[in-house]
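Prompt: May I have another protein with tokenized structure?
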Amino acid sequence: MAALSSTSSLFFPSRLTVPNLSFQSNLNPLRLNHLSTTPSSPSPQSLTTTSISHSPITARYGGGGGNFPRSNSGDFRRKGGSNDNDPALNISSIRSENVRLIDEKQNMIGIVPKYDAIQRAEDAELDLVILSPEADPPVVRLMDYNKFKYEQQKKKRDQQKKSAAHRMDLKELKMGYNIDVHDYSVRLKAALKFLKAGDKVKVVVQLKGRESDFRNKAIELIRRFQSDIGELAVEESKSFRERSMTLVMVPNKVVPIQKPPESPKKNETTATEVSAPV
């Protein structure tokens, strides 16, 4: 009996596999990669989607964005200003519904609603500055606040320069009771120079040790110095103590300072250049 052998095989359909499925989402952009089906079927192309970017919405004067109206109850400051902590720009501190408005040319507009004044400042791109918060109603003005503060500071600096120009400094000159002729002349010229420049001059003669015996000579020296100064200065104070003689002189404004005579011009003839008669 011949051996009977048979081979049988069973067919199983192929299993659906999804290898290497990756999902990446960062909201912008969104990507889906490597999506595949059965090995026998062609793999579809990768799906890539990118969200559409929108420009950011910004509010020029603060508050919300978009087309929503801006609140009129907050502060009003022009864009780019650096006066965030200045109470003169804190419009929210005004509780009154109305304000007395002055325009940028310092013309009185009159009493207007507060929101109207804010709208005028926004339209003109100016600052709305509080001038008199305690008035009824408060007084506000349209202006360029940075420019206004710069002009005020400039005026203050100019006033300080003028006051410094009129300020009178005190120059002190010391001498001994037995000063020689040359040193005396040097101090006298210095005193005249200081007085002509508009400064005070204080002359001091100090006596040390046994020099107190020459007190009378020191007093005579002080009086001589004052006499040599002449009408260019007037005496402000004088003190003759035991060991210290002082004299303070101030410029005499009544006496004008004489300027040196100007040299004649070349095309002008002097009085001596007169032709003799022939």
